[in-house]
Design a protein that fits this description.
about 200 residues; alpha/beta; Rossmann fold; 2 domains; 5-stranded parallel beta sheet; 3-stranded antiparallel beta sheet; 7 helices; 8 strands; about 35% helix; glycosyltransferase; PRTase_dom; Phosphoribosyltransferase; glycosyltransferase activity
Length: about 200
């Protein structure tokens, strides 16, 4: 990424991390590139019997994005997920208030945006983030993650201008399997990183 940035292929760079797990990774990239860090808040849409099983995701006011393969496997339809989408949207708004504290979302028009997460299995949250950010008119939209399943990366290349991943295994069952220490990231860690790396208004 550093060689790429210095080559001039990336200009007016902003790093946008998916909280919470993507923020420590995004912070390291922002420090190394000496560019601002902010967040793009995305919420997973769970299934009726478990909010931890994600079959979709939402970002901003956009309609939800669904994992159609996952829906078929669980014999679910989009119509049945209305309450789960509503709950996810409430939590999305809460998280935006916590992390931004009233700050507006960054204006990315004409900017090179690097979207960062801690790793991708299905990639549904990254897909929602990329589609949401594309509407903001970025000059270039790059997805950067430490690890991503090969098929997931191929699918996301249709949404991003570039997908950069250190590891591209055949499949990622759990992102945590690729970390020696995969402790949950707290809201305070997110806020601390944003205070350090987000320019003062």
């Amino acid at each position: 990424m550093l060689e790429w940035a210095s080559s001039g292929d990336l200009a007016n760079v902003t790093v946008l991390a998916l909280p919470r797990g993507g923020v420590p990774v995004g912070a390291e990239i922002a420090r190394a590139m000496q560019v601002p860090l902010d967040v793009v808040v995305v919420r997973r849409v769970g299934v009726p019997w478990s909010s931890e099983v994600g079959v979709g995701a939402i970002a901003g006011d956009d309609p939800p994005v669904f994992d159609r393969t996952g829906l078929r496997a669980m014999n679910l339809t989009v119509d049945r997920l209305g309450p789960e989408v509503a709950r996810a949207r409430v939590e999305l708004r809460h998280r935006e208030r916590v992390y931004r504290g009233g700050r507006p979302a960054p204006d990315i028009a004409g900017h090179s945006v690097v979207v960062v997460d801690d790793g991708l299995a299905t990639g549904i949250t990254a897909l929602a983030a990329l589609r949401h950010l594309r509407r903001g008119g970025p000059l270039r939209l790059t997805l950067a993650v430490p690890v991503c399943g090969r098929e997931t990366a191929a699918a996301l290349r249709e949404e991003a201008d570039d997908v950069v991943s250190l590891y591209l295994p055949e499949r990622v069952r759990s992102v945590g399997d690729w970390y020696d220490d995969y402790h949950p990231v707290s809201d305070q860690e997110v806020l601390d990183a944003l205070r350090e790396l987000h320019p003062a208004p």
